[in-house]
Design goal:
The protein is mainly alpha-helical and 168 residues long. 71% of the residues lie in helices and 0% in strands.
Length: 168
C-alpha cells in the first residue's frame, strides 16, 4: 500500500469518487463520436478503428478510443440516427423555407444546394424569420455537405429507414 495516502473510510472514498466523476462531462466523447461519425464511417473503409483513433490523437489531440469508434461502427444505424438528430432541425428549417425541397433528394444533390444564395442582409432585416434559413444553410454546409458524397450516399439507406419510421 502507498504510504503517502491517508487512510479514510469507504464512505469518504465513495464520496470523493462521486465528486470527481461529476466533474466530467459523460456525453463529451459520445457527442464527439456522433459529430465525427460520417468521417469515421468513411475512413473505416481504408483504416482500422485503432488507426483512426491514433490519427485523431496525433493530428488533432482528440482522444477517442478504438473501442468507442468500433462501437459506433458496429451499430451504424444507431450512429447515423444520432448524427441525423444533430442536423434534422436545420433540415426542417430549410424545408420550411424551400417548400419544393424533399429531404431524400436535396441532401444528396450538391449542385442544387451550392446554387442556393441567401437573399442578403436587407432582406433579413425585413424578415426576421429568415435567420433560421440562413442558419440552416450554414449548418448543412458544414455538417452535411462537407461529408464525402460517397459516404452520404451510403448513409441514404439509413436516412430512408428513419424517414419511414417517422411516417408511421
Amino acid at each position: 500500500m502507498n504510504s503517502d495516502i491517508e487512510p479514510v473510510s469507504v464512505a469518504v472514498v465513495g464520496q470523493n469518487l462521486m465528486t470527481h466523476a461529476k466533474s466530467f462531462n459523460p456525453n463529451a466523447k459520445r457527442g464527439l463520436v456522433v459529430e465525427l461519425f460520417p468521417a469515421i464511417y468513411g475512413a473505416n473503409k481504408h483504416m482500422s478503428a485503432r488507426g483512426i483513433s491514433k490519427f485523431l490523437k496525433e493530428k488533432h489531440g482528440i482522444k477517442l478510443s478504438a473501442v468507442t469508434i468500433t462501437k459506433a461502427l458496429n451499430d451504424p444505424k444507431k450512429s447515423w440516427n444520432q448524427f441525423f438528430d444533430t442536423i434534422e432541425p436545420y433540415v426542417e428549417a430549410y424545408e420550411n423555407w424551400e417548400k419544393s425541397a424533399r429531404r431524400d433528394d436535396f441532401l444528396f444533390d450538391d449542385e442544387a444546394f451550392k446554387v442556393i444564395k441567401f437573399p442578403g442582409r436587407e432582406f433579413v432585416r425585413k424578415h426576421l424569420l429568415k435567420f433560421a434559413f440562413a442558419q440552416a444553410i450554414n449548418v448543412l454546409r458544414e455538417k452535411w455537405f462537407s461529408i464525402d458524397l460517397v459516404v452520404r450516399i451510403e448513409a441514404r439507406s439509413y436516412l430512408a429507414e428513419r424517414l419511414l419510421g417517422k411516417k408511421k
